[in-house]
Amino acid sequence: MRIFLIITIIAAMAVMAGCGSSRKPRTAPAEPAPAAPPDAPAPAESYPEVAPFGNAALAGKPGEEEAATPHVWDFRDATTWLLGDINRGMLLNRPHSEWFLDGYQEYQPDPTFMSELVEQETDDLTITIVLGTWCPDSRREVPRFMKIVDLWGFPRDKIRFIGVDINKIAPLADYKELGIERVPTFIFYENYSEKGRIIEVPVTSLEQDTRNILTGK
Asked: What's the rounded Cα separation, in Å, for the pair 159 and 157?
């Protein structure tokens, strides 16, 4: 009986020892990953803060440093010239809008002479402007003069624009009688008779020369 009890105890110890050596440690079950918000981009759609070839590569749009270089116009090219009777609206189209708008906005006429011009009657006055869009003097003075007439309040429909080529010729029947030698030329008429003109550059300033012509000073 004693021998049988001893054998039973030894067998039980052997079973317990074997289970302990072969048992793997238990681990807690992994928690499921939290679901992404519905409006969040998928990982493949997320963009890094800095792209390897510049931020423009992220969205396919040019960055500030990669903006296109503005086109430089050659106004000596005859394809850019405006010839014959033209209008102010043509100067507001590219490529001429670039120089016209810049010159117009930057010019500040002398308020002393502008106050005198405002007092001038315009009913009997007309103005003819002869210019060459290829001419640097025309591209400088014409926008300035238009700033003056706008502040003056001179009617736009009483201003005639004539564009000439590099030989100062315009394809108009009545052009020759104007006697144009240099451009720009601003011709002032009163009751259709010439009262005076500003040729190429003003003697003093455009606003003062205009005042002088109209007042006879």
From this structure: 6
CB 30 within 8 A of CB 24: no
Domain-located, residue 189: yes
What pTM, to 2 d.p., does this model score? 0.68
Q: How far apart are CA 107 and CA 140, in angstroms?
A: 10
Q: Are 18 and 7 in contact (CB under 8 A)?
A: no
Q: What is the CATH number of the domain that holds 96?
A: 3.40.30.10
Q: Residue 14 has which token pair? A: 């052997």
Would you state the pLDDT for residue 1? 54
* Residues with Cβ within 8 Å of residue 129, at least 6 apart in sequence: 142, 145, 159, 160, 161, 162, 184, 185, 186, 187
Q: What is the pLDDT of residue 3?
A: 55
For the chain, the domain total comes to 1
